[in-house]
Every structure is written in structure tokens, then in C-alpha cells.
């Protein structure tokens, strides 16, 4: 599949690209195309040293949308609206969001927009034919970056279009040892996104690092 | 410790009582004292057959509040307000809430009151000196009932009074193989409670039973 990653030079984008570029064509998008190319070249080199041929290219964020059958929005929540509104061409795309709106005082808390979640806000901003799927929300950026480390967490996947959800669940299961769980409609995204500030609090208050989650 | 369980004849109440009555004095409360006594006697007998001496007594819900140093509110959310408002004497008590406000259409969803969570609603209803602690929210009733089965889940514990929270975390860790995690202030209760409809959805959409959660 062709996977365009908006904000692909960030931890999640890079981590996903690294783990999927053997079997899929990855378009690492960025506002800064040079940075995207640099990230892509580094990745190809690092994987080549392990005997893995990576199908990867650095592009603009718009190219990542245009070229991807699946588009991953790998940006920080505070840049979400401005990023999405600068792009077009989402019609009929599967759009994957790992975005979590988080606030912080002396602890972390869930701080969603009025739509109820980042995923529901994205749905509102995009054409009706775009199929929004929430996934990869609760895996720490630090874990994504550790490219040789096994990721054996559970990933709750939610969305209103079943076929798109199943495709994304398949993609999740290609990444390391992640296990995908259908978590129901896109409305579930508020709960799934809110788990991220919860596990950040658990890390903080229990002296843990990079806390993840498993359902079983 | 003396633990009063309001609604102690329900699955969670009975399951907790069964697993804690060896080391603590358990007061199984009910609106129906006869039912509480019957549950208590059954439990004493069942544990005695395993060579365990249970410290357990059936009482009214009001007695459970009066006698407990720790009071567990083991009632369904729809009965929460009427139950709490029928009781007095919560001053200075540690009050543990596993209550989750859940709605259901073709899927489960989180349906909190205006206060933001069941725990925050309880805090509002009780005297200021009562110390509310959220715990045991995400363990399925069916698992509680299987009295010989090991429970090896993670339990997120939240509350504003650190000492009370630590006491409850200690109690959690006495139950089977549960692991307690400090999840921060009582405000975290909305996220923790919402995990329950999420895991109910995961069970529904993935043909699983009694889904639980682990943080690691």
C-alpha cells in the first residue's frame, strides 16, 4: 500500500515509516521537504545496513496526501488545524489519526476540542468521503524512536467505516508485535485518546517510563 | 482494617469481600439486611471449606458506612445518587468508588454526569472530610464472581488525598495478583471510568469475554 505520513519526520512518523517501509511505499511528508528527504535517506541507509530494502521517499505534506492511499496525520495536536487546513485532496482517503489533545498542569489531562476528540475534529474538517480511523494513540514517542525495540502493546482502532478500519487493523498488526483491537465507532476515539494522558500520569506518579497498555 | 461495602451482595462487592475477608473485617451492606446476611454466611462457609477463616458480617448499608474505616460504594451508577442520599456518616471515611456511568446503544459509551465522573459526583454529594478514591473500575463483574480465578490486571487508583490513595493501593495489591498504579488526582477518574465502556466495546467487537487492562 502507499502510505503518506503528514509530519513524517516526527517520532511517530519516523517510527512508523521505519517499521512499515519494507512492505509498503512510504511517503514521509513535511512542511520542509529537505528535512523529509533527509529523514528518508537516513532511514533507507539504516535499514539497508540491516539488509532491509526500504521503499521510502521524502516529500511535502501535500504530496504525502496525494500519493498515499492511507494518510497518517502524525502531528502534535496544537498544529492539527493549521496543518489540515493547509492541505487538500483527502477525498476517499483512509485517514489515520494517532493525535491526542493533552493538557498539562501538575498532571496530564485530556483536553479535547468541542467536537469531543481530535479524531472527530478531523472528521469535521475533512470531506465526507474521507474515512477517519483512530489508531496508534497510546504508544509513546520514545518507544517509536527505539527502532530495534519490540512493540508488544495493544492498539485500539476505531472508525465508522468497517472496511477502512479492518485495513488499518491489518497495518497495525504488521508493526512489530502490536495487536489491533476493533474498539467500535469513531465516537470511541475520545476514550482512546484520553488514555494517553492517563498513562503519562501513571508514568509520572509511579516512576515509570514509556508506559503502554494491553487489553486481554 | 474494617471495610464496609455498600451494595455488598452484588458481584463486585461479593468478589471483593471474598478476597479480602481473610485479613480484614468485612461488612457486607445491603438495602436488604437478610440478603446481606445470606451472602455473608455463604461466603464464610465457602471459605471455611478451603480452610480460610473469613471475618465477615451481613449488615444494612448504613451499618456498612458506620462500621467501615473504608467504605466501598459497590452499586450500579443508576442507583448511585439515591443510595448515597439515603446514607449519612461519611465524615473522615475513605470512600472507594469502582462506579462507572455507562450508556449503551449499539455500542457502549461513557455517559458521565455534569460533575465529569461518578467519582466527582460522589465527592460533591459527600462531606468535605470524606476522602474519595477511585479504584477497581475496570475489572469485569464476571471476573469478580469467579472466586477461584486469578485476577492479574492493572488497577488505576486516583484521588486527591495521597495517604488515602496509598491505603487503597495497598488494599488493591492484596487482591489476587492485581497491581495498583497511582493515576494522579481524582480528576483522572473520568478517564479511568471511561475505560470500562471501551473494554466492553473491545469484547463486543473482537468476540472476547471479560476484557481487562494492563499498564506496563
UniProtKB/TrEMBL annotation, chains A, B:
One of its GO terms (cellular component) is plasma membrane. The keyword Cell membrane does not apply. The keyword Oxidoreductase applies. Keywords: Oxidoreductase. It holds the Pfam family F420_oxidored. One of its GO terms (molecular function) is NADP binding. Coiled coil: none annotated. Residues 2-101 form the Pyrroline-5-carboxylate reductase catalytic N-terminal domain. One of its GO terms (biological process) is copper ion import. InterPro entries: NAD(P)-bd_dom_sf, NpdG, P5C_Rdtase_cat_N, STEAP_metalloreductase. This is NADPH-dependent F420 reductase.
Amino acid at each position: 500500500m502507499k502510505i503518506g505520513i503528514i509530519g513524517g519526520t516526527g517520532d511517530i512518523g519516523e517510527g512508523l515509516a521505519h517499521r512499515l517501509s519494507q512492505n509498503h511505499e512510504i511517503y514521509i511528508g513535511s512542511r520542509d521537504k529537505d528535512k523529509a528527504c533527509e529523514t528518508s535517506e537516513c532511514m533507507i541507509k539504516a535499514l539497508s545496513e540491516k539488509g532491509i530494502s526500504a521503499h521510502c521517499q521524502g516529500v511535502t505534506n501535500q504530496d504525502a496526501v496525494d500519493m498515499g492511499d492511507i494518510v497518517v496525520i502524525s502531528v502534535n495536536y496544537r498544529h492539527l488545524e493549521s496543518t489540515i487546513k493547509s492541505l487538500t485532496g483527502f477525498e476517499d482517503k483512509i485517514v489515520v489519526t494517532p493525535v491526542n489533545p493533552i493538557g498539562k498542569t501538575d498532571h496530564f489531562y485530556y483536553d479535547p476540542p468541542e467536537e469531543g476528540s481530535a479524531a472527530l475534529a478531523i472528521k469535521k474538517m475533512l470531506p465526507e468521503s474521507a474515512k477517519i480511523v483512530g489508531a496508534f494513540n497510546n504508544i509513546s514517542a520514545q518507544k517509536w524512536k527505539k527502532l530495534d525495540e519490540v512493540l508488544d502493546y495493544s492498539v485500539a482502532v476505531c472508525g465508522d467505516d468497517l472496511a477502512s478500519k479492518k485495513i488499518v487493523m491489518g497495518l497495525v498488526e504488521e508493526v512489530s508485535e502490536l495487536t489491533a483491537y476493533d474498539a467500535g465507532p469513531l465516537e470511541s476515539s475520545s476514550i482512546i485518546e484520553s488514555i494517553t494522558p492517563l498513562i503519562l500520569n501513571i508514568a509520572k506518579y509511579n516512576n515509570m517510563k514509556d508506559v503502554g497498555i494491553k487489553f486481554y
